[in-house]
Amino acid sequence: MLRRACLLLSAVLVGVLGLLPLSAPAQAAPLTVTNGTQFTDTTGAVVHAHGGGVIKVGSYYYWFGENRNPDNSFKAVSAYRSTDLKTWEFRNNVLTQSSAAELASANIERPKVIYNSTTGKFVMWMHKENSSDYSQARAAVAVSDTVDGNYTYQGSFRPLGEMSRDDTLFKDDDGTAYFVSAGEQQRRPPRLQADRRLHRHRQPGRQPVARCLPRGAGVVQAQRRLLHAQFDHQRMEPQPAALRHRLQHHRPLDGHDGRR
Q1: Amino acid 161: pLDDT
Q2: Which of 9, 68, 118, 128 has the fewest CB atoms in 10 Å of its CB?
Q3: CA neighbor of 185 nearest in space, from 160, 211, 203
Q4: Into which CATH architecture does domain 38-247 fall?
Q5: What integer best gives the mean pLDDT of the chain?
Q6: pLDDT of residue 200 exceeding 50
Q7: What is the pTM of this model?
């Protein structure tokens, strides 16, 4: 009886051990991305993607950024993709000077892309100026059926009638989208709606406050806090960034085009 019990216990243990992994799951080797160096793509060509934004679709990260002519005017928004954020493959000039008459002589800066699950389209927001100065201070929008396909230009405008320069997009985990841009007035970021409208949150009795323009804004979510980083528009030399945070008390975004 004891021998049968021992044999049964041994069989159970062998069965359990057979379900356990023989070794820890393999992990990708760490990669080092060095700042202050010239990035090149998989063909050895220089990466032209200044002021860009990254979106993950499937197993790929897609990097969209500014590609400029020798006179520094707009040439294209170029798209690259990578699986490790270090090795980048050129995919397409997704928006070019020939995409719309308004872009033939222009400056397009800081393009950002999000996905609108309501319309099934990828939506790009960007800062738009003419090619000679920064008097327009407009936001522009383009859309595409695929992440790295040709984007159809929808036009430019001043969101809520206010100037808009350096910009970013934030998509929360409930699908709500927000457009954040630099301007002469302090304001809450407008929420983007799939029905092509911008919605603005106001605090009762609070008026916009004059301030210097922030640059290079970025918003990320970490441990239920929203982190917002930016630096002073009036200083071009290297400088510390300002970092603000708040507890996330509601859920934001769903990749919308948000034009009025």
Answers
A1: 86
A2: 9
A3: 211
A4: 5 Propeller (2.115)
A5: 74
A6: no
A7: 0.73
CB atoms within 10 A of CB 204: 4
3-state secondary structure the chain: CHHHHHHHHHHHHHHHHHHCCCCCCCCCCCCCCCCCCCCEECCCCECCCEEEEEEEECCEEEEEEEEECCCCCEEEEEEEEECCCCCEEEEEEEEEHHHCHHHCCEEEEEEEEEEECCCCEEEEEEEEEECCCCCCCEEEEEEECCCCCCCEEEEEECHHHCCCCCEEEEECCCCCEEEEECCCECCCCCEECCCCCEECCCCCCCCCCECCCEEEEEEEEECCEEEEEEEECCCCCCCCCEEEEEECCCCCCCCCCCCC
Q: CA dist 172 to 9, 109, 121, 194, 248, Å? A: 51, 23, 17, 15, 10
State both tokens at 34: 């060095």
pLDDT in tens, 157-191: 998 888 888 888 888 888 888 888 887 655 555 56
